[in-house]
Design brief:
Layout lengths: L1 H11 L6 H20 L5 H15 L3 H19 L4 H6 L6 H6 L12 H14 L3 H15 L4
Helix pairs in contact: 2-3, 2-4, 3-4
């Protein structure tokens, strides 16, 4: 879904850059961030900088950029089973329409989320749960249990 949204944005902007270019840059950012996670050098400032750089490079919204980065980082963190609360605290919840609905934030699309709004949403999540990344995991688990898959 996020690639479709980014593709539409690139098309609307008559961008020279393509989805393939986006994937290459995204995975370069992910490699950099996962290296920081794996060496315990990851922090929230690095995450925000990478999200912002990707958004600026492709003229997409912070909402679109954060979704692509945060989803992959969430899985990297959980699959590598890193036991580092400082890294976990620095990770963000991937924002999407389901998360916005739970937070009762209506009529806001990822395309409309700028850095200020993004940080406000992350702050709202941190007021509800100790580790923002777990807000998304809790949501996934809750729905998988409701479907009888867990």
């Amino acid at each position: 879904m996020i690639l479709r949204s980014i593709g539409l944005t690139l098309h609307r902007n008559n961008a020279v850059l393509t989805i393939r270019d986006f994937k290459i840059q995204l995975f370069n950012k992910i490699e950099s961030l996962t290296d920081l996670i794996d060496t315990s050098a990851f922090n929230e400032t690095e995450l925000i900088n990478h999200i912002t750089e990707l958004a600026n490079y492709f003229s997409i919204s912070i909402g679109q950029s954060q979704k692509a980065i945060n989803v992959i980082l969430k899985y990297h963190y959980h699959l590598t089973r890193i036991n580092n609360n400082e890294i976990k605290r620095a990770l963000h919840c991937p924002i999407d329409s389901k998360i916005l609905a739970v937070l009762e934030i209506n009529n806001l699309s990822l395309n409309a989320i700028d850095i200020e709004r993004y940080l406000e949403i992350q702050n709202t999540i941190s007021q509800r749960i100790e580790y923002r990344v777990d807000f998304d995991v809790h949501w996934d688990t809750q729905h998988l249990e409701a479907e009888g898959l867990l």
